[in-house]
Amino acid sequence: MEILRMFLVLAHLAALMAAAIAVAFGDYALLGRRRIDGRLLYRASTGVAWALVGLWVTGLALIGVDTAFDWAVLLAKPKVLAKLTVVLLLTANGIHLHRTVLPSLTPVQPPARREARRIAAQAAVAGGVSAACWTFGVFLGVARPLAPVLGYTGFVAVFGVLLLAAVLVARQLAAPRLVSRLCQATSESSGPPREGEDALPAGPAEAGLMTPPSSAAA
Q1: What CA–CA distances, in Å, run from 86 to 79, 91, 129?
Q2: What global pTM score does this model have?
Q3: Among 45, 114, 138, 202, who pairs with 217 as Cys (CB 3.0-4.6 Å)?
């Protein structure tokens, strides 16, 4: 069982690393160029999504090994409960990003300045949530000694402070840069790769405002 757990931890870490790489590509697609690179952003977001699936599968497998999904045992593990809470929020935020935020970031025609500000603010908030979730998830991976001190409530309180800070920073730093890029958007940089175009395989090369391991691609 210990050997199985070791391989599950390795797979969990590999999925986390893939997500981090994908997030970096997504952030570059959003903020690293003069215009938003819609194709790279789409590939990055797909990579983050697959990495998140990997984290769910390996994470649940680890919980099964450690607790056999016994609710009494699980409820006695505040760190695990906090991580599940954060990952659920990350997943919900990721669905919102893919369905609402990312399409608005790659318009065919440049939006009006007021609309660009609205889109950028929405993306910054989602990116801040994503960044806080990924960052706190990494912290929880090494926070076992703090579990008896903080408990579930303490972990959630710390996460709340981090979440607020991440959203404020994203609104102040990322949103203005996104506005300028949205106003320069062109049809050449929008949307997922079309059929027949050269495309990278979906995987650990995508993400979003995530370093927001964070952000608009999570």
Answers
A1: 11, 9, 10
A2: 0.77
A3: 45
